[in-house]
Each structure stands twice: as C-alpha cells, then as structure tokens.
C-alpha cells in the first residue's frame, strides 16, 4: 500500500510509539530479573519481582495483538 507523503510523519510517529510500547514490558522484565540476579532478596521482594515479571510477560502478547488489530 502506498501512502501520500503528507501521511509520512504520522506513520513514522505511530511506528515509534509502537516500538516504545513493545519495549516497555520487556525493559521492565529485564529490570526485575536483574534485580533478582544481582541482589540478595528476602522472600517478600522475591515474590514481588516474580509477580512483576509475570505481569509484564502477560502484557506483551496483548500489546502485540492490539497493534495488529
């Protein structure tokens, strides 16, 4: 599909936003996993880290599905 040039900034902006949205759960998951790996954790913090990793892992497919719909 070919779009007129005046659509280019909107398309580029949308792609940047999509890229950001896709990376957000991945970056959060990486941060929580690094916290687990690099620091001694008590049981409460361990559970919190694992819950956040699970939450972000569940968000990722939904974001991808939303982008394709």
TrEMBL record:
Catalytic class of the enzyme: transferase
Reaction catalysed by this enzyme: ATP + protein L-histidine = ADP + protein N-phospho-L-histidine
InterPro entries (UniProt xref): HisK_dim/P_dom, HisK_dim/P_sf
Chain ranges passing through the membrane: none
UniProt-listed Enzyme Commission number(s): 2.7.13.3
Name of the molecule in the record: histidine kinase
Originating species: Nostoc flagelliforme FACHB-838
Lineage of the species this protein comes from: Bacteria, Bacillati, Cyanobacteriota, Cyanophyceae, Nostocales
């Amino acid at each position: 599909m070919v779009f007129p040039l005046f659509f280019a900034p909107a398309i580029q902006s949308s792609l940047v936003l999509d890229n950001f949205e896709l990376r957000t759960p991945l970056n959060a998951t990486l941060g929580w996993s690094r916290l687990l790996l690099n620091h001694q954790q008590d049981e409460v913090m361990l559970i919190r880290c694992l819950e956040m990793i699970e939450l972000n892992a569940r968000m990722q497919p939904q974001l991808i599905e939303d982008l394709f719909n």
